Amino acid sequence: MDDAVLATLAANLEKEFPSHTANDLGLVDAGDDYSFSFSVEGHEGQLTYDLQILKVMEFDNGNGEYVKAVALCDESGNIYVHYNGTGDGNWGYNDVAYGGGPSDVQAESLNFFNQVVEEYYGELGGDIYVTGHSQGGNNAQYVTMNTKYGLEIDQCIAMDAPGFSHEAVQRMKELYGEAYYENQRQKIYSYNGESDYVDPLGLEIIAPLDKDHLRIIDCPDDANMVEWHLIDGMMDGTSLRPRVDDYTAFHYFVVGLNAKIAERDDLSAQEKKELAIRVMKIAELFIGNEYDIYGDLKPEDIKELLSDILPLLSLYVNEDPETFHAAMEMLGLSPDVISLLETFLKECGNLTPEQRELILSYLSDCIIIDKEGKLSFSGDIFALISSLFLSLPSIIRTIVDNSEEIYRLLKEIGIFEIDGKDF
Please, are residues 84 and 139 in contact by the beta-carbon 8 Å criterion? Predict the structure, then answer.
């Protein structure tokens, strides 16, 4: 099957069966019929797929039940298993991109696929295709690599999908052997938005990144940060937008930052996993502000995240200021604000851990997260950042550079007694 046709069908399945909020499971039942029509470059006219639902995967993350995957078949007996993107409260499961695993949702995704094969493949006898977007794309890859029916899978489409931890990849190679591992990964095709910021996450990418397996999809010029990742940002109506030759600066900014996390030799696998959980909670917050999905984010999470990320950002700005500047421009920041951020991040590299901790404590005190998880700040956050991060290092340097003169002045005005001791 043409991977472009399968990817376009997968995009339509993602739109039809979203898992961003807990669904009424009764609205999606086995036996329901769906029809999808779309155009694909290189194919004449509209392509139409009439599908019937075979089975629905329900996933309960403790906050509610979600339609997490659907298995469908066409009139020729082909089976399509599609895994939905991350839903409300499910972003924390994406920490397996940095350590540990399998997650609960990966394990249940694998069990669901095995059940579908055992219940329907023998009767239908067609090809098997596995697809997914975002977390669903990670699940689709996990299933393709780990199911005992892997040889029956013809193709896998992973769209904007995060990667895996070193431990997960090594475990697959040890369990199944290098030859099988390589054979299965060659079935995976990656379709990523040109500005997507989720597919770079993780320590290892299973899918091949050569020109035969990687497709980069154009994103509308007026798309916002949320749309850079959601499936709608890759689509024009029911069809995929055109392919482009390369990613944007924001994508490469995330790639660089992810590499800095991977290089943190001072962090254990568990600490990287905890860092990933905080990153994913922030990601859920960005999506949630527009789509009403919220994670259990707490002010201390942001403080801990900033404590981990700020030194990495400081290194990044010094090493690749052009990409950082271009990425911030894509976020709509003005040149003045970008200049402030660059100065602030460079100054962070000059602070001691104790000084950073003090500043982050002040900052976290200004963070407000309401009962629905929405983030806001008390006071003028721009002024806070300006005064703390720009003036404090200057004050410290002034004191150090003029310590003898300041000491002499303080003694003259009577703040310290002259007893021959340094203060």
Answer: no
Note whether 144 and 188 are within 8 A (CB).
yes
Nearest Cα to Cα of residue 316 among 289, 338, 346: 346
The residue written with tokens 């977007």 in the block is 133
Of the ranges 27-31, 52-56, 65-69, the best mean pLDDT one: 52-56
Most confident of 24-38, 255-269, 319-333, 371-385: 319-333
Q: Which residues contact 117 (CB under 8 A, 6 or more apart)?
A: 79, 128, 147, 149, 152
DSSP class of residue 150? G
- Gap between the Cα atoms of 300 and 26, Å rounded: 39
The string of DSSP codes covering 112-125 is HHHHHIIIIIHHH-
Residues 88 and 301: their CA atoms lie apart, in Å, by 18
d(CA 139, CA 159): 11
Sheet (strand 79-83) strand order:
33-38, 47-60, 65-73, 79-83, 128-133, 153-159, 188-193, 214-217, 243-244
pTM beyond 0.70: yes
The rounded distance, in Å, linking the Cα atoms of 161 and 2 is 20
Looking at every residue in the chain, the average pLDDT score rounds to 78
Dihedral angle, C-alpha 287, 293, 295, 300, nearest 10 °: 60
Tokens of 115: 């059940």
33-38 and 153-159 beta bridge pairing: unpaired
Query: Where residue 85 falls among pLDDT bands split at 50, 70, 90?
Result: confident
Distances in Å between the Cα of 143 and the Cα atoms of 90, 183, 315 are: 18, 14, 37
Split at pLDDT 50, 70, 90, the class of 103 is confident
